[in-house]
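Risk register update: the risk of archive-format incompatibility is retired. Evidence:
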Amino acid sequence: QVQLVESGGGLRQPGGSLRLSCTASGSTFAINEMRWYRQVLGKERALLAAITSGGSTNYADSVKGRFTISRDNAKNTLYLQMNSLKPEDTSVYYCYARAQYGSTVDQFWGQGTQVIVSS
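Archived output:
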């Protein structure tokens, strides 16, 4: 099992920056990919960015060039640096981990952290 705890959400003005963190605990050795998603009430959860255990990254077009995903393996922590924030970035942000135990794959979610972008 893997437990994920997000932090760092809050209120920012448009154009501002924010860094989200997601600390993993438990069987972190089995994690081979981590992602950030966001979800607005009434809409589907949207994938924003992903990073593999090897450090390869991918981004959704909506955040490419503004958001940066990274991970500190020593701290078992995933980050999402968000720059040039827009009101449409207002959402609940979720951390996700994909873990593989032999041939078994498990998925884990954090509880979410709220980001509000407003003047």
